[in-house]
Amino acid sequence: MRDNKELAEAVMRRAAEIRLEKTKRRNRVYTVFAAVACIALVAGLSIGVSSILPGAYTASAPPEPYSGTLIVGSEAGGYVIVAIAAFALGICFTLLCLKLMVRK
User: Fold this and answer.
1) Pick the residue with more confidence: 43 or 26?
2) Residue 46 and residue 80 in contact, taking contact as beta carbons nearer than 8 Å
3) Distance (Å, whole) CA 45 – CA 34
4) Do the domain assignments include residue 84?
5) Is the pTM of this model over 0.70?
6) Sign of the C-alpha dihedral, residues 65, 69, 71, 73?
7) pLDDT for the residue 66
8) Does residue 28 fall inside a structural domain?
9) Residue span of the structural domain in which 82 resides
10) Residues 35-86: pLDDT tens digits?
11) Residue 54, CA distances (Å) to 48, 57, 58, 79 in order
12) Which SS3 state, helix, strand or coil, does residue 16 take?
């Protein structure tokens, strides 16, 4: 039979395990929410960029077929905005995950 000291240690150990499980669950929820928010924002920006920049998605061909400067053209402005926003959101998401990992 265990004495009171061993029982108290077992209770404290189990309480710490429960707290750790709750923290992990909360971190998973935050991570999923942040990922969904990032995807929704990038998708919304991708869809809405045509109203922000009216000439962003025109079907004109580049002047030279093998020029690598498609982003320089005025038609690619929307793509640049979406790419920059996606990159910034990726940085924020990574920093959020790192911050949650440090809390462990």
Assistant:
1) 26
2) no
3) 16
4) yes
5) no
6) negative
7) 47
8) yes
9) 23-58+65-103
10) 888 788 877 777 776 666 665 555 455 555 544 444 555 566 667 777 888 8
11) 10, 8, 9, 13
12) helix
Kindly state the tokens that stand for 80: 């640049």
Please provide the DSSP assignment of 42-98 as one string.
Answer: HHHHHHHHHHHSTTTT--PPPSSTT-S-TTTSGGGHHHHHHHHHHHHHHHHHHHHHH
Rounded CA separation 93/34 (Å): 7
| Residue keyed to tokens 């093998």 | 66
Instruction: Say if 2 falls within a structural domain.
Output: no
Span of 13-27, 61-75, 86-100 with lowest mean pLDDT: 61-75
Count of structural domains, the chain? 1
Specify the higher pLDDT residue, 30 or 55: 30
Please report, in angstroms and rounded to a whole number, the separation of the first and last CA atoms in the chain. Answer: 34
What's phi and psi for 28, nearest 5 deg? -65, -40
In a domain, 8, yes or no: no
